[in-house]
Amino acid sequence: xxxxxxxxxxxxxxxxxxxxxxxxxxxxxxxLINHYPIRYEDYSVISxxxxxQPGEKTTVTGKIISxxxxxxxxxxxxxxxxxxxxxxxxxxxxxxxxxxxxDILSTGTNIAVAGLVERxxxxxxxxxxxxxxxxxxxxxxxxxxxxxxxRQSEMKNLLIHxxxxxxxxxxxxxxxxxxxxxxxxxxxxxxxxxxxxxxQIEDWLPPEILTSESLLxxxxxxxxxxxxxxxxxxxxxxxxxxxxxxxxxxxNGLIRRKQLEExxxxxxxxxxxxxxxxxxxxxxxxxxxxxxSIDQILSDLNRPFPMNRLLQGDVGSxxxxxxxxxxxxxxxxxxxxxxxxxxxxxxxxxxxxxxxxLKPLGVKIALLTGATKLKFSGEAGSCSAGKISNSANPxxxxxxxxxxxxxxxxxINKQKLALVIIDEQHRFGVEQRAKLTSESVSPHxxxxxxxxIPRTVALTLYSDLDVSTLTDMPKGRIPVKTWIVPETKRLSxxxxxxxxxKHDSQVFxxxxxxxxxxxxxxxxxxxxxxxxxxLKTIFKGLRLDLVHGRLKPKLKTQxxxxxxxxxxxxxxxxxxxxxxxxxxxxxxxxxxxxxxxxLAQLHQLRGRVGRNNSxxxxxxxxxxxxxxxxxxxxENIANGFRLAEMDLKMRGPGSIWTILQHGWPEFKIADIxxxxxxxxxxxxxxxxxxxxxKYPQIKSLVNSVLEKPIALN
Length: 713
What we know:
Elements: H1 14-23, H2 29-33, E1 39-42, E2 46-47, E3 57-71, E4 78-86, E5 89-96, H3 101-104, E6 110-120, E7 123-127, E8 130-133, H4 137-142, H5 148-158, E9 165-168, H6 177-187, H7 207-212, H8 218-226, H9 231-261, E10 264-265, H10 272-281, H11 288-301, E11 308-313, H12 319-332, E12 336-340, H13 344-358, E13 365-368, E14 373-376, E15 383-385, E16 396-399, E17 417-423, H14 430-435, E18 441-442, E19 444-449, H15 455-461, E20 466-470, E21 481-486, H16 490-502, E22 506-510, H17 522-538, E23 544-547, H18 553-564, E24 570-573, E25 586-591, H19 599-606, E26 617-622, H20 628-636, H21 640-651, H22 654-660, H23 675-689, H24 699-706
């Protein structure tokens, strides 16, 4: 079923439709079959015209007894009017600007229409209904064997746009659900076409599982998800396809975990005294979560196969300290550590933090980014600008994607590389991560993320990783006060901000992306630049600057350095500052258009302040009341994991994908927040993957995973 979709599109319009299909992710027939409906219109009741009632949503079949195509006084506006009849009465049907109908409808045409029945004067009418031309209606009508319910049932088998639960698909401009229904119906032989027999759809699940889990066979499930015979069969089809999505995702992770455990890693002896000295040297006490996570990581490092662990924690929960302890353990055992981060801002931040933490312990650190090359100067823990030296031999290399480029070989000794730490790991592609972990003796891998994901969901998503979670915050951290600021209080808020700046506070003002995207565009940069000019007139006498993702890295770094040095009072930015900016004196963050952000992202942005023991504030500027209920949670809840759970319930799993952005499959039908179901399917997957000899149908799935390189999530 991997043939191109062009085989089902008329050559005269192929180019146009292929581009539209590609826009919604459809390139093959398999993609088209897996393009599931997002909802259904219930037109399953087929009524006689004589029994119609106003307000009824129904399907009506009959013959056109008159048809007209009229121009109106309004330029370019047309009306298509038909009168149809069955043996019980007549019905008026109107369409607006459906010019093509004049070429396909005429007196005597048998049609089915579906829509809402309305009263117009003394007559009944359906406006802009779904339309279907009934080429097979006469055959059914003439065949005396079809009577009553049998006749209606047989008619429904002919109908795909009316007379049933009608699928509505994700669309794009120029590509309608009706067009998609026609093509998918042809593929599935719904209306007598023979483009693709259902027999070509092979069921890969073992019969024993189908029976034990009461699952539909795949052919029936595919047919019923697109063209359900009944609500009950639709629910069963969704259940089967949801099982498939979760199973394949879990099986993929389990197979990769198995592969990983067959690889060899360096056993890192744990020097507890060294780690304890490091912990005692810190100017603060570690949280129970930090101590537990360090113990879990040190235990993993002492095994003969690679660690593959995710450390997730809320903003400010102290993940960097845990990573530093892991790195120190590896370095003191005589090996090297690479620390990869997604942005130069974050690389600079970690270089400063880790140098301060590890310099007293004799750790040699180098920093490598695409924009700047910083060399190890020869003294433990110091970095300076200049050309990278072959003799540097750093213990810890911090960098961006530059770490996987050829010039990194000057710094990285893959014979000694024993630990790779990847921060905000979801922002890196599978191939990028694999480049740091593809040696015959594999390094251990510690991934980190500050995106709070409910633990049950994390265990679902990261099926090939062990998960450590930091849920408690360092002692003495004061929760950020969060206020919703309506438009009517904007000027008062500006006045309050001005007063706070005069009392030695710094401020972030975040402008949302203009377009519905997680990526910064030129349009968004222009919008934030315009806002910046406006704010300069509002905050006269204060020092303002602007940062966004399209600035050159060197300039961006300089602006943030100036902010940290206290040379800037107010920094206006796009959400580019969401990760990696640590300005301890920044005590206020203003988020414009707060209703356009999810709770998880708002919480990430809020984490840019409150990074010392002073009271900090987050002001959520909103232009209306539409999101006030959701935003109210930001005022009352400081815990990122709890907010993530709320976001998941309110916005669905899509809210998680929006934050994670890259590297994850799209769950089209599965609800990954149903942990009980996911956990049950995981256990089934474990049994099958561990017994592939018993289940030959699964071999192709296993082989497809094994053909790909190991990607450490």
